[in-house]
Amino acid sequence: MRIDPTTLTIFLTVVEERSLARAAERHFMAASAVSKRISDLEDVLSARLLDRHSGGVRPTAAGLELVAYAKGIVDLLGRLRADMSRYNEGTKGDVRVFANSTSIVGFLGSDLPAFLRRYPEVEVRLEEWSSPYIVRSLKDGLADVGLFWADTPHAGLATVPYRSARLVVVVPAGHPLAGKSGVFFGDTLDYDHVAFHEGSMLYRLAEQGAAALQRSIRTRLQVTSFDAMRTMVSAGVGLGIMSDVTVAAQHNSGGLHVVPLLDDWASLAMLVGYRDFAELPRAAQLFVEGLSPSGAASA
Fold this sequence. Notes:
- By secondary structure, the protein is α/β, with parallel strands linked by helices.
- It has helices spanning 5-17, 20-26, 31-45, 61-89, 101-118, 131-140, 185-188, 201-212, 226-234, 244-250, 282-291, and strands spanning 50-53, 56-59, 92-99, 121-128, 145-149, 158-172, 192-196, 218-223, 239-243, 256-260, 267-274.
- It folds into three domains: 5-88, Arc Repressor Mutant, subunit A; 93-163 and 269-291, Periplasmic binding protein-like II (D-Maltodextrin-Binding Protein, domain 2, 3-Layer(aba) Sandwich), CATH 3.40.190.10; 166-267, Periplasmic binding protein-like II (D-Maltodextrin-Binding Protein, domain 2), CATH 3.40.190.10.
- The chain is 45% helix and 24% strand.
- The strands form two sheets. Strands 3, 4, 5, 6, 7, 8, 9, 10 and 11 form a nine-stranded mixed beta sheet that branches.
- It is rod-shaped.
């Protein structure tokens, strides 16, 4: 016989009730079955645990020592079951999230704290990457959930809508475009650009927009963050193409002017993507549901 949690629990009940019969009633067992478990436990431990008398039973010195061990073991197993249950329910665990710059700066700043407050025992491991890399990482299993631009090719992934944004031109004070209520992308090609890095979706969109006009972009500098772009634009290096939500998150009264882009392709949608909703850890499912109320996968 091995020492098992059920037998230890029964032993504790016997000690509490000072009676094999009453312990048997509480566990819906025959008194003989309870007596057999206690006898087997005594055999395994090579110690007499109970003194039996006409009025019932009482623990021996060895039995009292076992009571202390048994309470600790039963309590530990109870906490283990509770913790494992929280993992299964998604209220405890971790979620690997890869997100592009716009979603982090423009959206997750409000959405993520709300999720963490609701699920304080869930750890979100957030990493910033470009949309194409996020899609590849999801397919390779490097991330549970990704936030990327809808225009990024993502065949093979399930997605739900997240948020939308519109591209704008950011220029310093005194720039010829500063007073415009809106411009087309072609209007910006007469001026120097501070561009995002080549792996980004914004860079690809700008390159495609220029190619469609059979023109090229006068790129003076490439940067890897919106903060760096804003700084360089403020310094007069060139104009920048950003999303309206990232400008709203970072813009101050430092002399920057924001001009909407009027091109159709300047309207962008953000997706939440993953490989298979049913196969996600429960904590990751809750994260997806928190970002998109539908929570339903689509091709």
